[in-house]
Every structure is written in C-alpha cells, then in structure tokens.
Amino acid sequence: MPRFLLAALFLTITCLLGAPARAQAVPMLTGGTLIGVFFDQLRGFAADLEKRGLAFIDRGDIAFGQQQILFAGIITGLVNQFATEYAKALDNTLSTFSVGEQAVFGDLREQVAGIDALIKGGNTIAEARIYQMQSSANQLLDRLPGPRYPIVYGITAADLSPERGENPSDITIIGFHLSDPRLDRKPPVVTIDGETVPLPGLSLLEDRLGVQLPAPMKAKLAGAQSACAPRRTVSVEVSVFYLDKRLLRRPVEKTAGFHVNVYSSPDRYDVVIMASGTRSTTSLEDRSFKLEPPLYAQANCGHNKSVSAQIALPANAQEGMCRAEWRDMNHVVDRAQDCRVGGTVATISGTIYARDRNRAGNCPGNANGYLYASGTYKVPVETRTSVVAPRKKFNVRAPLEIKTGLDLGPALVNTTIDVILSRRGCQEPLDRMRIETNVVAARTEQSSEGGGFVGVLQNSQLRLVEKAP
User: Fold this and answer.
1) Which terminus of the chain has a smaller tally of CB atoms within 10 A, N or C?
2) Are strands 151-157 and 5-6 parallel, antiparallel or unpaired?
3) Residue where one domain finishes, among candidates 383, 405, 435
C-alpha cells in the first residue's frame, strides 16, 4: 500500500488556542545539518504556523487564519514527501549528498522561508501569491525521483452564506496531482457535510479544484448555523483517483481520501456604541460687596478727620468697581471720598472737614459722619451639563474594524464610551468594553473585557480593532 500524504489540517472551533509569544524561525541548513533533524524542525515550524492560524480564526480573522493553515499544509506535504523519499538517509548530514540533492534541500528551505516572509506581512494574502507558492512547491516535488501520489495541502473558502450568491470557486482545494492524466483526468469526488457536489460544480485547473456549491446546499449550511454560536465548520471530503503502477505489477486505479474542515462564512458582528459625557461651560456672574459697618469719623472745629479701610474680594474676582459716600453728617463744611479696586482688594478712604469757630470763638459742634462704600465684581462660574450622543449601531464582518466620531460636541471634561459586541442576530453580548477619560483630546487605549478587541479614543474619534493573536 502506498503512503498517502495528507497535509490538510483539521480546524476546530471548540478549542481556543492562544498564539505563541514569538513565531518560530525558519530552521537553518548547513553542511553539518542532519537531514532528519532538519525535517523535524520544518514540521515544528509548520505546527507553529498552524497554531497561529487557529488563533487568528478564534479572533474572527478567518481568511488570514485559514491561509496560514494552508501554508502549514504545504510545508507538511513537502516535508512528508521528502522524508519518504529519503527515509533511509535521515541520519546523514547535508554534505554527504550530491550537489544536485543539496540544491533541492536548499530549495526546500527557501520555499519555507518564502512562506514565512508572506505570513509576516500580517495581511490577507492575495490568491495569486498563494497559487504561486503552491506551484513552486509542486515543482519542487516533481524534482524528486520517486513515485507521485496525490496530496491535499488545504482549502481556501469564500463566504458560503446564501446572500453572497453564486461563486465559481466557493471552495478551492489546493494540492498536488489532484488528477491523473493516465485516467483521462478523472475528476475527484467532493462531499460537503455528507452531500456530494454535482460534477458540473467542479472545475479542475492543474492542481487546484474549484468547487461551486448549489444554492440549496448553501441554504442548508446557513440553516444549520445558530445566531449565538461561533461560525460552524463544514466537513469537506475529497476522493482523488490515481493509477498505481509499480514494477512488475499491473496498473491499478486507486483512491486517496482526504478530509478537511473549513468555515462556512466569516463571523458577523452587531456593534453598539453608546457615548456620554459632561460639558463644562464658564460664564461671569455679578457679585456685590459693601463696607460693614460704615466708617465713623469725628473732627473738632477747624480740623479734619480721615478714615480708610480695605475689603478683600475673592481670588477669582474680575472687573471690580466701587463707590463711596458720606452720610448722616453734622457740622461738616466739606468732605472727600474715594473707593477703588486694585486686583482683588477694594480700598476705601475719606475725609471730613469741620466748621471753624464763630467770631465769638464758640464752636457750633464737632463735625461727624459715616463713610459708606459698596461695589460689584464678577466671578467665573462653571456649569456642567450631561451630554448623550445618539446611539450608533454597526453591522460588520470579521475581522472587526470600526472608525467613528462620538458626536458629543466641544468642551467635554469627561467622556464614557460603552461598546457592546454580539454576533449578528444574537441578543447575548459576546464582549464589551468601557472607556472612561477626563481628557478627551489625549489618546486613551482600552482592551475589551474578553480581550477580543481594543478601543482607541482620541479627539472624540473612536477606533475599534480586533486584537491580533
């Protein structure tokens, strides 16, 4: 029995895997490297890549996550084929092989390094680049001298929800030798969740198989999805036919079976943003003051008497003014008074002048009177009012990214933003976040309670992004 190389990796949505703190580096290859150790290191690199892909899927970035899973499958398929071809030389160092074989091993490492460079870009990779990597991997396998058997590296899937309409490649199966020219390119059999895809829905191009799902099958997949549950996986079974021809044996048609799980559609979220704050406005209000009690002055005949006082105004007083006047005077021939505000101090002063004695030398009476003073000033008064912005609702696809203004207006002294995230159509919140800040213009960053996304608030602009694993 030939050894079939199943490089397609299984995805599950029931396990929540955290990403490694640091991605593994592509293993080095020198003349003293044991080939078996090199293969094991490449398998470890592929396993790390798969783990990271699952972490991205758990965060909702299904497209990028599945691409990493696919690349892990390409690496696994390459390594397994190489390990099979050189099973009797795993303990040999690189330097013991021929120059041509050393070049092939070097190309294997370069293939993995190329995949690593693509992944480190951190964005969903264009299909053309994926197919380019697949083509390079297949060319590398064709350089090996041994027999060829089918390999399924993995699957890329478009959004399989019914509202997306028909797509000639709802699912693309990527592999190696998916059809055998000796069997007139007999097409594989593809089964989705136990239901076989009709032959007209299959399109075979080299080592890629495009699968178009009939509308009833899409509707069935959508109907099996609960609103509050994570996106379900779809079971894909692939049977590939090939001709097994060995020395001194009659060729026999055989079947290689593969099983892969893919997501039916990316997560969709309902996001509600509620923002409120306190607006501070300042106005100047009038205040008054007066001299209490009034100043009393008494002067003998032919003399005068001066009096003075100061009144301290509040430290925040502005635009102060005042006036002074003498009242209840007796035997006063003249008077003077003054009241002025300097800074936050009102200074009052005044003088009365008594009558002179008459010709007989008699004094009609000592002069006396009361000096009154009053004035006004203004003080700034802060008024705080509550402000509530209109509630905002967003319907977005994973990965989550929203940019929006808060519409709270100017002069805010504090702001509270509540964000509730739920799966579309589900009333139960999936995650939530609250941002509270006293400086709206400053940059404030806050992670959600569940750790799934982060919010950044600055200058009344809110940005929500899904956390990268």
Assistant:
1) N
2) parallel
3) 383
